[in-house]
Amino acid sequence: MRTWNEIVAANPEHSENYARRWKNFQAEGKDIDGEARFLDALAPRGARILDAGCGTGRVGGVLAQRGHTVVGVDIDPVLIGHAQQDFPDQQWQVGDLALGEVPAGPFDIIFSAGNVMTFLAPAGRLPALRALAGQLAEDGRLVIGFGTDRGYHYRQFLQDCAEAGLTESLLLSTWDMKPFLPSSGFIVAVLERA
Q1: Which pTM was predicted?
Q2: DSSP letters spanning 60-108
Q3: Which of 113, 115, 132, 191 could be joined to 35 by an S-S link, Cβ 3.0–4.6 Å?
Q4: Phi-psi label, residue 33: left if phi above 0, alpha if psi -120 to 50, beta otherwise
Q5: What residue ranges define each of the domains in the chain, with the CATH number in brackets?
């Protein structure tokens, strides 16, 4: 699996195409808010939320519209530009999760949706998890979802989480709460500090 930077280097139009794809889904009336509904249900009202790998802000923006304070970070300045344009009242910044470039917490909820973890180089995954865990509020939750067939096996992910000082509180196969099955090809992990 290539990192996000490698994909963009190979195709400089990738970021704009990615942003356009999600806007087209929304214009077509497709339901693209499943992650936001799930996260909103987990969050206390008026939560402070970090969208780690926020892209265009499509999930964090919905959470902000539901009354949460959202901070987003993403490695791609083009996508951050879309987030700033579409959701100007929230804070969006460029940063590399694999280098620990995470906004200061504490956050009630930190989430990483959209296969973000699989776009990080393998050597950057554990540092990213440690950096995210370090910004959780005492009773905060870290929620990460990605396709397990994208070069990051769920067992290695869970081992990395434990090494980062995180413990599993819930494992699912989808954002609409189907129980985790290793054969599903997707994991949504709700984690807390150990």
Answers
A1: 0.93
A2: HHHHHHTT-EEEEEES-HHHHHHHHHH-TTSEEEE--GGGT------EE
A3: 113
A4: alpha
A5: 4-142 (3.40.50.150)
